[in-house]
Amino acid sequence: MLFHFDRRKKSEKEKKPPRFLVLRRKWLTLGAAVLAAAAIFAAVNYPAAVSASAATRQLPIYCVQRDQKVCSISFDAAWGADNTQKILDVLKEYGVTCTFFVVGNWADQYPEQAKAIVDSGNELMNHSNAHDHYNSLTADQIIADVNTCNDKIEALTGVRPTLIRCPFGEYDDHVIAAIRSMGMEPIQWDVDSLDWKDYDADTICRRVTSKVQPGSIVLFHNAALHTPEALPAILDCLINDGYTVVPISQLILDPPYTIDHTGRQFPAETVSTT
Predict the structure, then answer these.
(1) Which residues belong to the active site?
(2) Concatenated DSSP letters for the chain?
(3) Residue 28: what pLDDT?
(4) Model confidence over 168-185: pLDDT tens digits?
(5) What pLDDT is attached to residue 55?
(6) Residue 75, burial from CB neighbour count under 10 angstroms (0-12, 13-18, 19+)
(7) Angle of the 173-180 helix axis to the 139-157 helix axis, nearest 10
(8) Where along the chain do its domains lie?
(9) In the CATH scheme, what architecture does the domain 63-267 have?
(10) Pairing of strands 185-186, 163-164
């Protein structure tokens, strides 16, 4: 008697995967389905959480949404004071008041200049105590540095600063969060005069006047070589164009407000109760 083996059936049987692999594949498929369902559920039911995590970047105020032709001029004072009085004289001649951001060490070195800024009706605000790189400091170190400068300015003028411009215009999320935890507002600029590059007065004037828009904050430096010479032409142009120049504290909005991705401050949207 001859026995015949069906090699085709045996081959098919050998091709069947082991039972544990079949079970593993089923569990993997089921797990993937569960994860996909969870993802869909989260996206549908918690879209705000996703948006919030994408919008956590902390920004200072670069400019302000304004319908009227109003803007602010600011001066950073970190070194030198030779041109400060010249600048104050020009501002007085035009009846304009501005915001000066001064370093605490500068105020130590030039206390009479610091007092003169305030006595002439201008704002004296914080530009750090020693012009350090805030990004490399801890939150506690930033707060201590800011308070040291605030203490110096308050001792000189009787007014404690509410605004700060970070040294070098440098910041990250932890810097801005630390500053706002103190109840202070960090301020940048949307128009840079680049006066520190020692451009001539005409170049500075053209650069500034071509870029100013309602709600702009302009950056100058008190010790730049040609700033006092450029200011009269800039103020003439702005005033003739219908602009009012105000200190930054009068330009920015009170809470509640929002800041978009460009650093523009907007009034918070009014939520209707009807």
Answers:
(1) 76, 221
(2) ------HHHHHHHHHSPPHHHHHHHHHHHHHHHHHHHHHHHHHHH-HHHHHHHHT-----B-EE--SSSEEEEEEEESS--TTHHHHHHHHHHHT---EEEE-HHHHHH-HHHHHHHHHTT-EEEE--SS---GGGS-HHHHHHHHHHHHHHHHHHHS----EE--GGG---HHHHHHHHTTT-EEB--SEE--GGGT--HHHHHHHHHHH--TT-EEEEETT-TTHHHHHHHHHHHHHHTT-EE--HHHHSPPSSEEE-TTSEEEEPPPPP--
(3) 41
(4) 999 999 999 999 999 999
(5) 52
(6) buried
(7) 50
(8) 7-54, 63-267
(9) Alpha-Beta Barrel (3.20)
(10) parallel
Q: Supply the pLDDT for residue 269.
A: 77
Q: Give the CA radius of gyration of the chain.
A: 31
- Give residue for tokens 């026995």: 3
